[in-house]
Amino acid sequence: MIKDSLSHSTDIVIFGGGVAGLWLLDRLHQEGYRAILLESDALGSGQTIASQGIIHGGLKYALRGSLAGAANVIAAMPARWRKCLRGVNRNDNAEAAENACDPDLSDVTVLSDHYYMWSDSSIRSKLKTFLGSKSLQGRVEALAKTDYPKFFAAATVDGTLYQLPDFVVDSNSLIDALKTKQAEHIFQLSTDSVEFPRNSSGKVDALTLNLSGQPLTIETGKILFCAGEGNQQLIEQAGLNTPSSQLRPLNMVYVKQQNLPLVYVHCIGDSFSLTPQLTVTSHRDREGTDVWYLGGELAESGVGKSDEEQIAAARSLTNALFPWVDLATADWHCLRINRAEANINNSYRPDDAFLIEEDNIVVCWPTKLTLTPSLADKIVELLKSSPINTTDQEPAENLNALLKRAPIASAPWD
Ligand SMILES: Cc1cc2nc3c(=O)[nH]c(=O)nc-3n(C[C@H](O)[C@H](O)[C@H](O)COP(=O)(O)OP(=O)(O)OC[C@H]3O[C@@H](n4cnc5c(N)ncnc54)[C@H](O)[C@@H]3O)c2cc1C
Questions:
Q1: Domain containing 158 — which CATH number?
Q2: Cα–Cα distances in Å, from 349 out to 29, 312, 319, 344, 404?
Q3: Do 58 and 203 share a domain, yes or no?
Q4: What average pLDDT does the segment 244-255 reach?
Q5: What is the distance between the terminal CA atoms of the chain, rounded to a whole angstrom?
């Protein structure tokens, strides 16, 4: 039997609990908004848990020759994240007050404080010219051999190692830290149960959830779609016309072996190009086995390959690049996953976080983990330009009674 509709009211409803949704939930609460987050699966279960966790300043784009308008935005991101990772005590000092709107990420595990770029000797002079260009001056430092980290100190091939301003975070601990901050505002919800009715002026100012025959209406001032690949389905469910998303498929490879040396590096170029051939990060699975996670050009060019062909390509590339490492007993796997971005210009890759609003719904794509703070800035700016009017909050007891809590996703190698 269908019971009377229950209701709840809040300023903002966020769909999707990857890095974008979780970061925004915390930022919006700090800005004084009342917000809840609805996740259809486990938190981080799309791209965030599968990401390599590199917080980068855009050099990778520059190497491809595709760093355009937003170069300064991405270049500022590593320093912005480092402040969050140091933690913010808002009563401490002026600097803390200035940063008070970014989440305190002091509980997040930093896997490597540095990210590196390795090139073989064949492109040394080409690279020197490129790195000497004005836009990159001072951002990339060639290391003396005496300063090489352990992995490259053991190299048996001639190459040059550069240290970038980038670093690597553990995605799982990032999701956990963000979830912990706002746990009471996060709920799990089956996507099929949502409807987006329009009011008399054509705006969506409420959601209807049908929870096993029990209707629940959530009145809200603004709705944010932060569902990564799931944004497209939400766009269609809500009947939006303008926004659309594009997917860029990848065939990532991960390699498990006991006692793998830790390495965090872009291996760039061959004699023709500076594109990163291989992007490596190191992790550990639940059983304590070391994992290398391999992306870059390998993952892009591997999309049309079978798993066997892709693993053969990965073996051959790692062997050519790191002949001093013995991977004889390694366990190799493929992970097919899509990057979800805004479709702004026929497959053009956006170079900053992107959002678009229609009928009170804002569809968001951070584009990169790195650019999440930029997305949060853009959302706050948008909200400040059109203040939200909602009725007083009703107690969250209806949400607590009807909705479950969302767990955290497992890493691909777990
Ligand atoms: C293999 C890979 C490696 C990457 N490496 C890096 C890197 O090193 N550095 C970097 O800066 N970026 C990297 N990226 C990009 C980065 O991971 C993404 O830009 C970022 O994680 C996107 O976050 P998101 O929150 O928008 O989406 P997602 O992380 O995809 O999260 C979306 C969430 O929404 C949920 N959801 C889906 N549909 C619905 C619905 N209808 N209702 C409610 N919830 C829903 C999903 O379950 C999921 O939890 C990488 C991406 C990939 C795929």
A1: 3.30.9
A2: 31, 29, 31, 8, 36
A3: yes
A4: 94
A5: 42
pTM score over 0.85: yes
Contact 175/136 with Cβ under 8 angstroms? no
Residues 358 and 332 in one domain: no
Q: How many Cβ atoms are within 10 Å of 385's Cβ, its own excluded?
A: 7
Cβ 339 under 6 angstroms from ligand 1: yes
Cβ(361)–Cβ(238) under 8 Å?
yes
253 touches 317 (CB < 8 A): no
CA distances from 343 to 68, 244, 248, 375 (A): 17, 6, 11, 16
Residue 228 alpha carbon to ligand 1 centre in Å = 5
- The answer to whether 370 and 74 are in contact (CB under 8 A) is yes
CB 38 near ligand 1, within 6 Å = yes
Could you give the number of structural domains in the chain? 2
Structural domain containing residue 126: 115-165+247-341
Ligand 1 mutation target, pool 25, 37, 48, most atoms within 8 A of CB = 48
* 16 Cβ closer than 6 Å to some ligand 1 atom: yes
pLDDT over 90 (residue 291):
yes
Number of H helices, E strands in the chain: 14, 19
pLDDT in tens, 31-86: 999 999 999 999 999 999 999 999 998 877 666 665 556 677 888 999 999 999 99
Listed in sequence order, the residues at least 6 apart from 97 whose beta carbon sits closer than 8 Å to its beta carbon are 90
Residue 334 CB–ligand 1 contact under 6 Å: no
Choose one of 115, 224, 369 to mutate for the ligand 1 pocket test, by most ligand atoms within 8 angstroms of C-beta. Answer: 369
142 and 255 part of one domain: yes
From the alpha carbon of 339, which atom of ligand 1 is closest? Answer: 53
Pull the structure tokens for residue 238: 């809500």
Distance 226 CA to ligand 1 centre (A): 9
Based on the domain organization, do 90 and 149 belong to the same domain? no
The beta strand positions in 41-112, using DSSP E, are 54-55, 110-112
From ligand 1's centre to the CA of 67, what distance in Å? 21
Rounding to the nearest 10 degrees, give the CA dihedral for residues 220, 226, 229, 232. 40
- Give the distance (Å) from ligand 1 centre to CA of residue 258: 29
